[in-house]
Amino acid sequence: MTPAPRTDARTTRLPGSLPVAALGLGSFLPDEVVTNDDLAEKLDTTDEWIRTRTGIHQRHRLAPDDATSDLATRAARAALDDAGMVPGDIAEVLVATTTPDYLVSGVAPIVADNLGIRVPALDVNAACSGFVYGLRQAAGLLATGSGPVLLIGAEAFTRAVDPQDRNVAILFGDGAGAIVLGTDDAGELGPFDLGADGSDPTSLYTPVGGTREPATVDNIDERRNFMTMRGREIYRFAVAHMSASSLAVLASAGLGPDDVDMFVGHQANIRILNAVADKVGIPAERCHTTVHLHGNTSAASIPLALAHARDNDRLAPGDRLLLTAFGAGLTWGSCLLTWGTA
C-alpha cells in the first residue's frame, strides 16, 4: 500500500530549488546473488568479517554476456513503465557510470539506441557521486527548456575490481537504477552542494588502462588494471565531506535535520552511513539503507535505494529526501528532492 500524502502541504519553494519532479523510477539487479560465504570460499575472509566491517551481506553480479549498458537499459525501461511513458517521450539520456562498456564510447548513446530513440545522450563520470551530479545536470537541462530527462545510474563493478583482492572484491556489486525527471510546478529538486578534490586521485583509482599509463602485458600481469583503494583515507574523506555537504544543503535551504523525512546516502559502507547520519543529526528510523543487499554499486546505489524504499512503502508523496554521496576523483555531492507531490 502506498503511504498517504503529507497533510502539511508545503507552499513555499525552497531557496535554490527548481520545479522538477520524479515522474518514474525503475531498477534492475542481476539474477546472480553472491553471498559473503560464497566469497569466503575463494578469499581469506568470513561472513562475520565482512558484515562487521562493511554491513554487506550479499551483492549481485551481472551475467557473463551482459555489460553496463544492458543493466542501464533494463532499469530505464522499468522507469519509463513506472512513469507511463514510452522512449519517444524522452528528450535527453544521462548515464552516471564509471564502468562503461568501452574505454572510448559512452554508455548513454548505446542505451538510447537500445530504447530506439535518437536524442542527446552522454555519460556523467563522477564515480559514486555520479547520480547526484547527474541530478544537477538534469535539473539544468530542464531549466533551459528540455523535455523529460532519463537519468540512469548503472555499474558493473565486479568487472573492475580484482577478484583476488579481498579488501576490494568484497565491497562491490552490479546493478542499475533509473529516474525520469520532468518540469512540474509541484516538484522540488535542490538546492545542491557539489565538489571535487583532484589533488590525489590515487587514493581510489585504477592505475592502468588510461592515457597516464596505457595497458601493457607487464602491468596487466601485475594486476594493476584493477581498481585500488586506500580504505582508511577514503573512510575519513567520505564521512567528512558527505556530512559537510549535507549540512551545507540544509543551510542553503534554511532547514534543519528535523525537516528531512528520509536520508539516503551512497551505499558504500554501513559505518560511513551511520557516521554521516549521526553528524547531520538524522535518526536511524529516517535513514534508508540497502548496502546489506546490494553492496557498493557506485553511481547506481542511490537510485537502487530509492527504488527499494518506494517498493517497501517507505516513500510518501511530499516527503523531503536528503541525498548525499562521495566518490573517486575525489568527488562529493548532496541535494534535496521532494518525492512526488504533496
Q: Short summary of the structure?
A:
With 342 residues, the protein is α/β, with parallel strands linked by helices. Helices cover 32% and strands 23% of the residues.
Count the E strands.
Answer: 13
In DSSP terms (H or I, runs of 4 or more residues), the helix count works out at 11
Largest sheet: 5 strands, mixed
Principal-axes shape call:
globular
Percent helix = 25-40%
Structural class based on helices, strands and sheet pairing: alpha/beta
Radius of gyration equals: 19 Å
Name the strands of the widest sheet in spatial order. Answer: 1-7-6-4-5
Provide mean pLDDT, rounded.
Answer: 95
Element order: H for helix, E for strand: EEHHEHEHEHEHEEEHEHEHHHEE
- Low-confidence segments, given as residue ranges, are none
Question: What's the SSE blueprint?
Answer:
Blueprint: E1 20-28, E2 32-35, H1 36-40, H2 47-54, E3 58-61, H3 68-83, E4 92-96, H4 107-115, E5 121-124, H5 130-143, E6 149-156, H6 166-169, E7 174-183, E8 188-196, E9 204-205, H7 217-221, E10 228-229, H8 231-253, E11 262-265, H9 270-280, H10 291-294, H11 301-311, E12 320-327, E13 331-338
Parallel strand pairs: 4-5, 4-6, 11-12
Antiparallel strand pairs: 1-7, 2-3, 6-7, 8-13, 9-10, 12-13
Description of the structure:
The model has no long low-confidence stretch (mean pLDDT 95). It contains eleven helices and 13 strands. The chain is 32% helix and 23% strand. The protein is globular and about 55 Å long. A hairpin with a 3-residue loop joins strand 12 (320-327) and strand 13 (331-338).
